[in-house]
């Protein structure tokens, strides 16, 4: 693949070649509106394909509902107060509460492990043992101990959402400028001042990214725990109960669509906040 070289300045002023793919050279960068239009076009194409497939009879009616029926049903449910109180609100409550607790635990824990090497070394074996355990595998155990209510969902969400926030906090601490930290130390600033003035600001974009990842994971655990629990309140309960009813395919797909829309909305809001709060970091990633 052909490449072209553009100069890049190193420390000291010496230019070194920077390799850049000729395929992407001169190509205009897609704007945010352009990306949104392309994404919407992809969604519409998929929706039309599912509509045609369901209407054609190629797939059994009890296996796939037309897109138009799903959209109509979603509108009906969103206008139903009983659906909000019995399905959406319990899921949103567990999702939000679990995520807040996870961030409140993971950020200080990540700062501690990243700032105190002795603590990091002492807890590494425990962390590496717990981290690979699938959160869904803990649902039966936690259900036996706490039941199938809000407490069970919150515990599972916290367990699953802690890891991306904590590890991104650790990565962010490692990205702090060592020269800036040494400069503050030379002026007599203590460890806490260095952490507050240099290390934590450098880690904030990484922590924010961890929160974005944890948001999606928390929603997966909230809905998944409700489905596997089998009874109670929540969007997952709505989906699980629809699976066991005759002609419940439309409600299953509608509940799945609503869960996906919740995740998309949350991620879009967090991405908007990231562009506003950490513009310099977003520009560095795209450059």
Structural summary, described in words:
The chain contains 11 helices and 2 strands; from the N terminus they run ββααααααααααα. It is mainly alpha-helical and 287 residues long. The chain folds into 2 domains: 33 residues; 222 residues, Orthogonal Bundle (MetI-like fold), CATH 1.10.3720. A hairpin with a 5-residue loop joins strand 1 and strand 2. The chain is globular, with a radius of gyration of 24 Å. The N terminus is likely disordered.
TL;DR of this structure?
Helix content is 74%, strand content 5%.
What's the SSE pattern?
EEHHHHHHHHHHH
Describe the global form.
globular
Give the number of DSSP strands: 2
Strand order of the largest sheet: 1-2
- Alpha carbon gyration radius: 24 Å
Family: Belongs to the binding-protein-dependent transport system permease family.
InterPro entries: MetI-like (IPR000515), MetI-like_sf (IPR035906)
Subcellular location: Cell membrane
Protein name: ABC transporter permease
Structural features:
2 domains; 287 residues; mainly alpha; 11 helices; 74% helix; MetI-like fold; two-stranded antiparallel ribbon; transport; transmembrane helix; 2 strands; 5% strand
Secondary structure blueprint with pairings:
Layout lengths: L2 E7 L5 E7 L10 H25 L10 H12 L2 H35 L1 H14 L8 H8 L3 H25 L3 H9 L4 H39 L5 H9 L5 H29 L1 H8 L1
């Amino acid at each position: 693949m052909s490449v072209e070289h553009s100069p890049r300045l190193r420390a000291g002023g010496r230019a070194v070649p920077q390799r850049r793919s000729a395929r992407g050279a001169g190509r205009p960068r897609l704007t945010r509106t352009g990306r949104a239009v392309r994404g919407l076009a992809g969604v519409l194409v998929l929706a039309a394909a599912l509509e045609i497939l369901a209407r054609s009879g190629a797939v059994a009616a009890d296996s796939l509902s037309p897109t138009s029926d799903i959209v109509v049903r979603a509108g009906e449910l969103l206008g139903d107060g009983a659906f909000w109180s019995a399905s959406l609100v319990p899921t949103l409550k567990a999702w939000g509460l679990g995520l807040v607790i996870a961030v409140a635990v993971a950020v200080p824990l990540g700062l501690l492990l990243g700032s105190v090497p002795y603590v990091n070394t002492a807890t590494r074996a425990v962390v590496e043992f717990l981290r690979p355990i699938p959160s869904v595998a803990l649902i039966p155990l936690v259900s036996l101990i706490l039941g199938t209510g809000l407490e069970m969902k919150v515990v599972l969400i916290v367990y699953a959402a802690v890891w991306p926030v904590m590890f991104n906090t650790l990565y962010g601490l490692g990205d702090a400028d060592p020269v800036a930290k040494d400069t503050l130390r030379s002026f007599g600033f203590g460890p806490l001042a260095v952490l507050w003035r240099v290390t934590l600001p450098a880690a904030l974009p990484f922590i924010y990214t961890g929160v974005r990842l944890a948001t999606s994971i928390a929603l997966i655990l909230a809905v998944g725990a409700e489905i596997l629990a089998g009874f109670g309140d929540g969007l997952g309960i709505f989906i699980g109960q629809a699976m066991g009813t005759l002609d419940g395919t439309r409600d299953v797909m509608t509940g799945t669509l609503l869960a996906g829309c919740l995740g998309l909305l949350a991620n879009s809001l967090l991405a908007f906040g990231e562009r506003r709060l950490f513009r310099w970091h977003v520009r560095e990633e795209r450059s």
